[in-house]
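Q: what does this look like with NAI bound?
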Amino acid sequence: MSHQLLKGKKGIISGALDERSIAWKTALACVAEGAEIVLTNAPIAMRMGKINELAKLCNCPVIPADATNIADIENLMQKSMEHFGGKMDFILHSIGMSPNVRKSIAYTNTNYENFLKTLDISALSFHRFLQTAMKLDAINEWGSVVALSYIAAQRTFPGYNDMADAKAVMESIARSFGYSYGFAKKVRVNTISQSPTVTTAGSGVSGFDVFLHYADITSPLGNASAEDCANYCVMLFSDYTRMVTMQNLFHDGGFSNTGVSHLIVEEIMAGNKVEE
Ligand code: NAI
């Protein structure tokens, strides 16, 4: 279903670990729509993941960068511009990790060193990408930067832990940086708030299967898949969304505006009632 929406456009896609990653699907979708891309991920993910397989499919280079390291990000942007022979048009930030989630440390008993790492990797890295791109003037006018978020930034989901705080910070960065980047260079900055999706990062959240099912039967359209999310990213990188910036855009089949669905009620009536 290619419409060459990104023909002639160039961009960086971060966060493709394996074929389940939202970034993996987005990289394939961008290339199918005519874009030229550079892939990036943390050096450790290069060894553990399958990014080199994806690079072959996309016929593109991989430039490792730890999203918490400013020198790595500068190198990534500079090398990407050398590869493209000029500035780029889009960047996908698809990076998240919480040591507290990974180690099953409860939110009410947090480890603050871990908490700072969560914020650094999952939220401040977005600022780092934007600040470095702006300093190096790496993005063409009307370019587009997108990061992936989750509704736990607005509402509480037990188990999402300190990632909820990281997402809230990230969404705020999209507004604050979007303001400055818009005035300075007409670059737009948005976050997509995606349905729960089965990936390495997603599955790390405790009780993930249950809230995936809950979201699916709450949402009138069901959960949005990673492929759907990739298509939404393509649209946000395209010229069809030139005037969209500083937004957190829900891509969740209607979940965010639904209180309760008849399917949830039916499940409870059928005897799955949870004892308080
Ligand atoms: P994933 O595990 O495939 O992707 C996360 C990526 O972050 C990995 O490629 C990992 O290597 C990278 N990363 C971790 N630390 C890094 C660092 N220091 N430097 C550079 N990269 C680093 O999982 P997924 O689900 O595709 O995650 C992508 C984004 O989507 C994340 O921001 C996640 O929070 C967000 N998201 C995921 C949802 C889900 O249910 N899977 C729902 C809503 C948002």
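The chain has a mean pLDDT of 95. The radius of gyration is 19 Å.
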